[in-house]
Amino acid sequence: MVESIAATSLFRHSPILGNYVKDRSPKRVAMSPNPSIRFQPIKAQAMELTREVSRFKEDRFPKSIDRLWPPNNKADNPSLQNPLLRQERMGCGWLGAIFEWEGVLVEDNLDYEKQSWLVLSEEEGKSPPPAFMLKRIEGMKNEQAISEVLCWSRDPSQLKRMSLRKEQIYQALQGGIYRFRDGSKEFINILTRYSIPMALVSTRPRKNLEEAMSKIGINGVFDAVVTAEDVYRGKPDPEMFAYAAQLLQFIPERCIVFGNSNLSIEAAHEAKMKCVAVASKHPVYELTAADLVVRWLDELSVVDLKNLADIESSEFGEPEVEMELEEEDDAYPSSRIALDDHDF
Predict the structure, then answer these.
(1) Region label for 70, one of left (φ > 0), alpha (ψ between -120 and 50) or beta (otherwise)
(2) Which of 315, 311, 300, 310 is nearest to 99 (CA)?
(3) Cα 272 to Cα 266: distance, rounded to the nearest angstrom
């Protein structure tokens, strides 16, 4: 009995002289011992299972997922004929630097800025702007601050007149004296030595900015200069930084902004740029939203800039879709007990 069970195959066939004969049929049918014929049903089932798995993958994972790796480098330019130039663009050494003027390269005196607004309000017969409003208009264009925050006028001619007058008051208070912040000139020289393109942005008029640059001897250092005449809005709008990147012919992801306020950080990140915050008028703990915070520019090195400009996942295609957490029932209901007025 045991031998007969052991001699029965999984397919309920008993081996007889090398052939397989079906046991439970009234008529014996001889089957070939060829493995390719015996296992055809199993092979068909395996193929069907493979097809089902492939269909499941296609339904579960769209074909666009296949393009996530290797990721597309936005810095790549297939139209370049020179492969060395193309490879250089794809490396982290291909970057541009965008500097703000006051508080980053030169010393900034906020008292002059506040006093110029107070003097202008007195001349125009307006109420003096409070401190919180003066803080809000930092980094804005004069026309933008007058029309949107101070609400003194919306007439373009009046906006231009008051904006020019405010700059005249500021220049008179400032006295035309400009001084480099410690370490700024040395850092500019390092970037020039490594042939890193640089741009300068400011909400000051171009004439005043060029005069200031000539006084401290940095004319011709920057590859692009963006002033109040070149843009419609100031910070926190990223228009200045985006236009500077276009002039430098760099993609935003490979530009590093050097600013000194949270408005600069917000504008840089809005433009998809990295931001190095210089703690000149704000403490370090207030600038933690920046990618890097320093007190002086000479604390930085070219390696630090390359690390900031290194390729990150945000450069590749569209951002990852965040998974929405399902709302779970409160396993531990609140211990508060609602009391009805009738209970008393």
Answers:
(1) beta
(2) 300
(3) 10
Question: Do 199 and 304 sit in the same domain of this protein?
Answer: yes
β-strand pairing of 96-100 with 255-259 = parallel
Is residue 51 within a helix (H) or strand (E), and if so which, with residue range?
A: helix 40-60
pLDDT at site 62: 55
Helix 239-248 / helix 262-270 crossing angle, nearest 10 deg: 60
Judge if 89 and 134 occupy the same domain. Answer: no
CB of 147 within 8 A of CB of 156? no
* 334, part of any domain: no
94 and 160 both lie in a single domain: no
Predicted confidence (pLDDT) per residue in 164-178, tens digit: 999 999 999 988 889
d(CA 133, CA 136): 5
Give the SS3 label for residue 326: coil
Answer for the pair 99, 260: CB distance below 8 angstroms, yes or no: no
Cut 0.90: pTM above it: no
Determine the structural domain holding residue 9 and report its residue range. Answer: 2-60
- Give the chain's domain count: 3
